[in-house]
Amino acid sequence: MDSILAYLMDRIMILPGIIVGLCFHEFAHAKVSNMLGDPTPEYQGRVTLNPMAHIDPMGFICLMFFGFGWGKPVAINPTYYKRRRGGEIMVGLAGVVMNLLIAVAGMGILRLLYQFAPAFLMSQTGSIINQIIVGLIQINIVLMFFNLIPLPPLDGFGVVTNIFRLERKSWFPKLYRMGPMILMLAIIFDLTSKVLSPLVSSTYMMLVGIFFGIYSEKLRKILNVKNGTALCGQFFFSTRYCEIFMFIRFLAGYRITR
Fold first, then answer.
1. What percent of the chain has pLDDT over 70?
2. Is the four-CA dihedral 93, 14, 51, 101 of positive or negative sign?
3. Is the peptide bond before 73 cis (omega within 30 degrees of 0)?
């Protein structure tokens, strides 16, 4: 019984961070593409923060009960951009920049709560809110770094492709076809987690240092930090969860209109 309750609590605690990270990430892609002259996201009703515009019903059910899920893909048409190459880079980076901004905002909120309501954070309700915010921060950092992996279908591949014009290389079509399989194998053999975990942890600690400076044992408890390492209860689960989540999102129908 306790394990079932713990499982449900895990899902509840991580759900806000996933929903916020997903919706804002997709919104950023849609908004930047629209700002660059592409009407496609607006026609599809994606230039909004309404979760219903970005959440796929079946993906949401899987998200709740099976530990992975997906959102509705944002279709873009780069032919509308005045500078296609630069536009695609900006759109590709928009999502990860948004995830970083959310993480920074989350840490800022924690700083304000610690400064003005430390007693509340130590209460039962405050502890729950603290866990949700810490999960929000770490999940968005995970999403940021995972999307920057330079393998298709992730954003990082599109950015690197446009910067170095990889589409001109003879091996590009083969890599584009094999990329999802390579990514899947990296996830299965835990290679992505081994790369992401130190990056996420160090980035989290860097934000802690920026917003809090030298922290006390009391602050360590609030931020779920021990021995210089971020130890959010959902941290390693979040890493794997987001990896599978982003990969399934692609399998569910990630497309770019060209």
1. 76
2. negative
3. no
